[in-house]
Amino acid sequence: MSNEILQLESVSRTYGEGATSVAALRNVNLTIHAGEFVAVMGPSGSGKSSLLTLAGGLDKATSGEVYVEGTPLGGLSINELARLRRRAVGYVFQDFNLVPTLTASENVALPRELDGTPARKARRQAKDALRLVGIEDLADRFMDQMSGGQQQRVAIARAIVGQRRLILADEPTGALDSATGDGILEVLRNRAEAGAAVVMVTHEARHAGWADRVVFLKDGRIVDEAASQHDPSVLLSGLAH
Amino acid sequence: MSIKHSLLALLQESPRYGYQLRGEFEERTGSTWPLNIGQVYTTLDRLERDELVAKDGDDGEGHVIYSITAAGRTEVMDWFAQPVAQANPPRNELAIKLALALTLEDVDVSAVVQAQRTASMRLLQDYTRQRRTAATTAGVQLSSEEAGDPNDAAWLLVLDSLIFSTEAEVRWLDHCEGWMAKRAASAGKSAATRRAERAIPADVSTPTLTSTTKAASK
């Protein structure tokens, strides 16, 4: 298929060397297409976060190759990687990673401005992104004037600004209550339906339920996958279960 | 599930005949637990015998109308006031399967856990999809506490109940896996310790320990 957004081809990542080395990922193959929402689950230390940082070009594979929109990340310089991340990859961190001295709008516009977009256009794109996550009216607020849920929405707006095609989210609902967390998942789901590829690391099965596909990691390997059946009769079979 | 109390609750709202009761029950619970019309009439017969409902003529089209009695109202209010008794957990095939798998040498328990987790996760995905569709249809934002038709809200809550139950099952499977990993590590360590002990003859190990103790005390 030609709409592959993220590909991991025989990717391994080992930290350290010799007897003390730790294999975080072992020969992982994974392809994620445009419009797909994929959840990654697994116990602590199974390699979930390593997979996400490699996919986002924040770390390099020990062997194998990561492709984002067909571009192999292995051969890119640090500057080229940074450019690709700003242009194509949105990263939602569990602890938001927002700049406290900037407003919501400025935080969201920042990656666009760094990428050379004129300030006025970047602000307009930021406003569009804030509207998509439902907090357009909070654009001029600083981070200490916003709740955790609102800050997480700013972080998501920053990840989707400029119509990035790959959204990577690390436990994006970690510190949020159930209703606010559902709101965040709704935003991610909508981005996937608008054509982005969304990869979300989570340990919450209920949140993974929002994904089209759930990938299970264990000891650095993909051990299984669950894909939604799209079967309207599932409710009855579920009850029988 | 108490069909008896569910029918009484609906009759408390207004007198109804059997098919109406079945329709109302299924609509309010999203057809999650389909009722057999035979079950409805058998239950109505028992409720009438116990003087909790009474026949109240017909609707002119041959349908016998039932209405609730004062005793029936008391019964249904008591039902709502009492927590659902969970003293005798229902038979859980999965728990039984895992318990037995753990005791048998030829069964790969990890594979049993993973197969179930994948199936449960798939179910959770489908429930979540249905919930999202239902919420959209009802015009209710998932993150909003506003609800329109109470029947829509009831259906969403039934779906939530299924979602949370399935989530609990996946969490329990995660817990089982973690517990088995710890047990395997502990068993491995014990085996290694036993092997080490077998490799060191007692008459050699004792002086070594003594000399270590002496060295430590210097």
Automatic annotation (TrEMBL), chain A:
InterPro entries: AAA+_ATPase, ABC_transporter-like_ATP-bd, ABC_transporter-like_CS, ABC_transpr_LolD-like, MacB-like_ATP-bd, P-loop_NTPase. Keywords: ATP-binding, Nucleotide-binding, Transport. Pfam families: ABC_tran. One of its GO terms (cellular component) is membrane protein complex. The keyword rRNA processing does not apply. GO terms for molecular function: ATP binding; ATP hydrolysis activity; transmembrane transporter activity. It comes from the Bacteria. CDD domains: ABC_MJ0796_LolCDE_FtsE (cd03255). The keyword ATP-binding applies. SMART domains: AAA. This is Macrolide ABC transporter ATP-binding protein.
UniProtKB/TrEMBL annotation, chain B:
Residues 191-218 are annotated as: Disordered. Residues 91-177 form the Transcription regulator PadR C-terminal domain. It comes from the Bacteria. It holds the Pfam family Vir_act_alpha_C. Residues 7-76 form the Transcription regulator PadR N-terminal domain. Residues 205-218 have a biased composition (Polar residues). This is Transcriptional regulator. It comes from Arthrobacter psychrochitiniphilus.
